[in-house]
Design a protein that fits this description.
With 285 residues, the chain is mainly alpha-helical. It is built from eleven helices and two strands; from the N terminus they run H-H-H-H-H-H-E-E-H-H-H-H-H.
Length: 285
Amino acid sequence: MTFQYWYMFPVAVLVATTAMASGVGGATFFSPIFILLLRLEPGVAIGTALITEVFGFVSGVRAYSRKGLIDFRLGLTLLMATIPAALIGTYLAGIFPPVALKLILGMGLLAISMSFLRGPEPIEVQRLDQDIHRKEHPLAAQTTLVTAEGETIEYTVCNRGEGLLLTGVGGLFVGLVSTGLGEMNGYFLLQRCRVPSRVSIATSVFVVAVTALSASGGHLVRFLGHGGDTLTTVFSIVVFTVPGVIIGARLGSYVGERILQRIMERSLGILFILVALVTIWEAIM
């Protein structure tokens, strides 16, 4: 182990705070950071990002669970699709060439940025949410969640089959390029079903955490097989990023309840466009 990556500790705190507040997987930030700044091979960067993300999201799951904001029933249903898909993606990540992984990651970040920038305005969300509750949908399931503070939150989860398909695709990309599931969760829960943002983010954190744990296990097995310099590099990074994301995850669960979600989404959309363009440029040059 070396101490050359000590500066990744404050970076990890900032990344985890942002990720937890927005419901976006931390690896969405870490993968390009490891590729562009640390100059790691894409396969190593993606696996290291997932390992780091797991610790941050587990801490976040605990925080949101204590608040009673996680819809565990819905989360377990979505995991039926995300875990197998993530394991398939992990296998494919060991086969695809580095240039292809960079291009996939860059294009994925562009898609993510567009989803954030095109998201509905708060007044539109409120109007559509009211419309959904006025209508009876044959595939809908009314859910009531009682928080730790005694607040009752009622919402309708729309077509679960569609949710399994969308989150399954997100799980595949988690294993392949470490990102995509949080964004697919957000699209399905927030934009399609209009689940309240606090419940959407908390449930997404739970689903991403368990899925990332499965995918990171596959990457870790691959690192152990490589051994030598690869394993040393990974350990030298995570020894600083793991404490950082644990702290940042706790901060993010509080920030997420206090910041305007639309401001967060637009800021991340612009950031991901810039990172995506740089990542694609790196791949083609």
